[in-house]
Amino acid sequence: MTIRRGIPPLVLLLLLVACTAEEPSPVRLDTVRRAPVTEVVEAPATVTARATGTLRSPAGGTIEKLYVRDGQKVDKGEILARIDSPQAEEQLKQARAAERAASRGGSPPRLGTGAPGLRLASGLTVKTDPRVRRGFAKARAAVREVDDPKVRKQLLATLDAAEAQHRAHQEALARAARSLTESLNRALSSALGQVTSQMSAGLGGLSTSMASLRAASLSQAKAAVTVARTTVDGLTIKAPFDGVVTLGRTSGGGAPDLSALLPPGASGAAQLPASASGSSGSGTPVAVGVPVAAGDTIVTVTDVSELTLSADVDETDVLLVKPGIEAEAELDAVPAGVYTAEVTGVGVTPGETSTGGTSYPVQLSLGSGTFDDGSRAPIPKPGMSAVVRLIVRESPDALAVPASAIVTSGRDSVVWTVRDGVAERRVVKLGAQGESMVEILSGLSLGERVVVRGADTVRQGRPLP
């Protein structure tokens, strides 16, 4: 019997069918339809308290008494601790003594302003020199002995004229002397007046300066008393508001510190963010009898009556975030728990993301949380990490396509559609962009077919099923 070798007819037929069958197309289509679209922005966040007050020691000393313990709830104004500081008490005593000394200084002496008088004698009179008078007398006696009456008369007339002329010269000289004296007196009085005025102004300014200096000294002394008294008052540490107490840690030094001279805040408290309180740092635990230095953290009070979220939103999304936007928060510490939240403010100070980008702070109020089964989630604690999902845009009945249909081409958003059985490129305008669906504002019509898979293989005019 002859055995024929070859391919059985049935196998051959199957091979021919397999070779001639077309490979399945990588392109898949979907339809433009109406659907709700919600756009969500995710951002990392941290749970924050309503307020945190870090209360520090205003001066060096020792902890005299503690009235609270860690985790205890306190009311505003409640005494939390007392610090014994002889140094602060001594400073207050010295400041009060300085104030009393400045107050006893009295008023400055009043300096006189009267102008001194100075005047030259001007009582010059006409007096004939005795020698001249004796000369005229001898001449008259000699003339009287002349026998000739006529000659005698002429000589006497000449003597009278000479004596009258001499007297006139003396009077003119006296007038000139009086005029010169009066001129000198006027000039001297004017000069003395100017000097006196300048001296009076200088002495008045000195008097004013002395009064101002004394007033400044008294004011400085009073300010020193206020600072010292505030420091002593701050040794009794009180709660600035209702909250929960966390005892801080001291440096354990207890040595005098110049910062004790600075005016502290109310009740010796410096209001700082929780991140800056330093209450968790290393050091000596707060306890009665432990020495403290000025500025050591004694107690931190945290108001947890209202919790908030502080989120960092990327710069590419922050312009979509507005106050009043609703959000959901998921906490790392509460798996499967979802908390309600609402945006209360959007900051303008840029920050840096973990990847080196730019972000902006967004504040949200934090509501209650629930688990998947509807049970209530626990109340978070400040400092816990979270992820917020901000609902920035929502369209309940949008003209939408699957998100996979959108192709980015430069600045354009492009969709491939089917027109008369071939591919057609369309530029579209997008609205809300959800995870699975995207809103189309223009460029497509309801019911059109679009490519949702394999768009990278599609070319203009290519036949599509």
From TrEMBL:
YknX-like C-terminal permuted SH3-like domain location: 398-462
Signal peptide start-end: 1-21
Source domain of life: Bacteria
GO molecular function: efflux transmembrane transporter activity
InterPro entries (alphabetical): MdtA-like_BSH, YknX-like_C
GO cellular component, one term: efflux pump complex
Region (Disordered): 94-118
Keywords of the record: Coiled coil, Signal
Database matches in PROSITE patterns: PROKAR_LIPOPROTEIN
All residue ranges annotated as the Multidrug resistance protein MdtA-like barrel-sandwich hybrid domain in the record: 54-253
PANTHER family assigned: MULTIDRUG RESISTANCE PROTEIN MDTA
Protein name: RND family efflux transporter, MFP subunit
The organism of origin for this protein: Planobispora siamensis
